[in-house]
Amino acid sequence: MVDLENGRKATSEVGKEGGQTKTTATNGGGRGPTWAEVIKGTPKRQAWTTHKISDQELGSIQTRFPDVLEVEEEMLEESRGFWKDLAVLVRSLGRQVPADWVVKEVRRALKLDYNPECFTMMDGYMTLCLACEVHREAAVKFGPWMVAGQVHAMERWRPNFVPGRDDIGRGVVWLRLPRLPLEFWRTPIILQLAAKAGKPLEVDSFTDQRKKMGFARVKIELDLKEPLRPGLFVKGRKD
Questions:
Q1: Looking at the record, which segments are called Disordered (predicted)?
Q2: For the chain, which has fewer Cβ within 10 Å, the N-terminal or C-terminal residue?
Q3: pLDDT for 130-161, tens place per residue?
């Protein structure tokens, strides 16, 4: 079963049909919603809108302002060096949450002895700067990040990121795989199944130690722009 444990849930069922283990999802046919749409839920009317210029408008601006400033690459590289190993890009996939709430949750979850520095940007984006690369990697891999009931996408900072034009496409969620036959209950097999939904990061301790076998639980990294998969067939042995 593919189940988002946090936020909105996409449910499915696993059974056996003709020697195959089948996973079916509840969403309808067609392309279906993306992971980001499922997590975000029903969109609310925004108080503010962001105007993204068209190619025609860009051409008009370039005609009015023909001068082009080229910043020296050495200066840019020096500036990027401050961010590349320490910073993460963050955005709420639901309603906007105050930046200091996000900072407090990151500090609590990672057990830090300092508050990460936060830089708020346009369109609900923010950048968190941590003290070292180890803490940055821990923040990226920790998810799912839930702050004030809202799922937050978080990924490593990248050069030339423009809020409103570019987007954060990475998210971490827990995936549930229920009613697995016992012979499938091995970590390598579970990770192989989870890889069809996203990039597996780890199984939880109960799954790894087989303490609760109602469902397997795997942390996966998702491309939030990709559509929700309706399910998959797993070839099994005929009875």
A1: 1-34
A2: C
A3: 999 999 998 988 878 889 888 888 888 888 88
